[in-house]
Design goal:
The chain is α/β, with parallel strands linked by helices. Helices cover 37% and strands 29% of the residues. It is elongated and about 50 Å long. The two termini are 16 Å apart.
Length: 189
């Protein structure tokens, strides 16, 4: 999973990058400003964004998230040291896929990613999101949790899926993935 980190603190960003590596995610870029985030989304088409609300420059993370949604349909996890009601209500209006308060532990970051991917998948399935015209919408892949890590499997790489009770094996061009989900759940995703 390709993740864009938007965080103005070098120390926090380093912690996020290390934690994401431990969770099996690839950080495609780390930026400090909303403007740089918009450029990175356009150039790199990340699968998920971790967005600090307090950013360097004139644009905060909430404003950046609103503009990102016009470029690419992508789950955003807000990260903030400010847990006041005003900030939360402002953030909530942009429909984030998860919200994480600093300081956080790696386990909480993993839960937030899991929640964001699950919420994103459910919204796509329910067709409640009207996607802006973009080539970055991920309809040709599925994100699956394998051994505590998320992986992105392109649909064209799946040769077949074999059901085994409450598990299923996904046979791809490169490897076999054992998933702790039924075939029905996999098909739904």
């Amino acid at each position: 999973m390709k993740i864009l980190v938007v965080e103005n603190s070098s120390i926090v960003a380093s912690d996020i990058v290390l934690s994401l590596g431990d969770l099996g995610c690839e950080v495609v870029k780390w930026v400090k400003t909303g403007k740089a985030a918009l450029e990175a989304v356009h150039d790199l088409a990340p699968d998920l964004i971790i967005m600090d609300i307090n950013l360097d420059g004139p644009m905060d993370g909430i404003q950046a998230a609103e503009l990102v949604s016009k470029i690419q349909l992508v789950p955003i996890i807000y990260l903030t040291a400010y847990s006041d009601n005003t900030t939360f209500e402002r953030a909530k209006k942009t429909h984030p896929f998860a919200y994480l308060v600093k300081p956080f532990v790696e386990k909480d970051l993993g839960f937030a990613i899991d929640l964001a991917i699950d919420n994103f998948s459910k919204q796509l399935q329910a067709s409640t999101i009207t996607a802006p015209p973009t080539e970055h919408l991920v309809l040709d892949a599925v994100f699956l949790k394998v051994n505590k890590h998320y992986i992105k499997i392109l649909l064209r790489d799946i040769l077949y899926v074999q059901a085994e009770r409450s598990y299923c094996k996904v046979f791809t061009v490169e490897k076999i993935h054992l998933l702790t989900m039924s075939l029905h759940t996999f098909e739904t995703k």
